[in-house]
Write a sequence for this structure.
């Protein structure tokens, strides 16, 4: 009888250990999570057509929005925030003055059911209509504005943080490379970190921007890369990719603005798995800081 009890206890203990091991090896989250999930970082690259809008929800439930797409996409961005239960944004980052990036933020800033604690931009006096209109909405809503500068970081709670690695923010401005705009060259570039998860969000920045950041001793290594400037011809270079070493490359762009073939070839040469909003729709990344899941609205990675 005693030996049977010992055998039963041993079997029970073994089963418990196997269950624990299985649980640790599986990222137990829904790929269509709509709200805060404890111990999970959620990143949603929204499908806003040409341009960019990225929603981040930290493991502590704090939300940040990076860009808002075009003015036409602003309503879609606000609806996505509501759908995911976001009522407060700790941080809104306007990475550059292009209409496809900052235009939709006017609608976000003017939403009466959204609280925005801080609005971050490069503080460059851009003259574009989209930028001027968005900043007017920010001022009207009395949202505090912070100038982005290299070395800043924003604590999103739960161990997640957002580092600013461009622009320098010291009054000097990078001159654009050939074929690049001044707005793109001076885009706000951020690095999202949570435990072992690292994502580089290049926004309008190019390979030339990355080279300047490396020269300024900024760490741009990141397994997840949100390719800059809709995947344009100058958005990545072989040298840049050898430093970033992306395993996953995401391109936010519209159906009539396909990424440059040479950019796609360079990413494939770097053995990065490619996702595109024009083909995959909204792209979701959920991570516990070690493992991750990627979900798309349609189709698979390129």
């Amino acid at each position: 009888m005693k030996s049977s009890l010992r055998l039963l206890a041993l079997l029970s203990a073994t089963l418990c250990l196997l269950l624990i091991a299985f649980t640790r090896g599986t990222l137990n989250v829904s790929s269509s999570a709509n709200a805060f999930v404890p111990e999970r970082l959620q990143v949603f690259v929204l499908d806003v057509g040409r341009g960019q809008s990225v929603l981040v929800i930290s493991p502590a439930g704090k939300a940040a929005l990076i860009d808002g797409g075009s003015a036409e996409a602003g309503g879609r961005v606000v609806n996505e925030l509501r759908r995911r239960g976001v009522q407060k944004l700790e941080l809104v980052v306007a990475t550059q003055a292009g209409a496809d990036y900052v235009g939709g933020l006017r609608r976000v800033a003017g939403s009466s059911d959204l609280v925005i604690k801080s609005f971050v931009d490069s503080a460059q006096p851009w003259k574009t209509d989209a930028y001027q209109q968005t900043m007017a909405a920010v001022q009207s809503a009395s949202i505090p504005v912070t100038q982005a500068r290299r070395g800043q970081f924003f604590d999103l709670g739960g161990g997640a943080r957002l580092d600013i690695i461009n622009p320098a923010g010291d009054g000097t401005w990078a001159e654009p490379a050939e074929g690049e705009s001044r707005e793109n060259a001076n885009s706000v570039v951020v690095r999202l970190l949570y435990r072992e998860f690292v994502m580089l969000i290049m926004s309008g920045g190019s390979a030339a921007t990355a080279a300047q950041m490396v020269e300024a001793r900024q760490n741009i290594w990141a397994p997840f890369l949100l390719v800059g400037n809709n995947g344009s011809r100058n958005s990545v270079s072989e040298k840049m990719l050898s430093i970033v070493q992306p395993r996953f490359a995401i391109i936010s762009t519209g159906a009539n603005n396909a990424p440059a073939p040479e950019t796609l070839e360079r990413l494939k040469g770097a053995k990065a798995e490619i996702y595109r909003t024009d083909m995959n729709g909204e792209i979701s990344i959920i991570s516990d800081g070690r493992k991750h899941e990627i979900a798309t609205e349609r189709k698979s990675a390129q």
Notes: Residues 22 and 112 are 45 Å apart (CA to CA). The chain has ten helices and 17 strands.
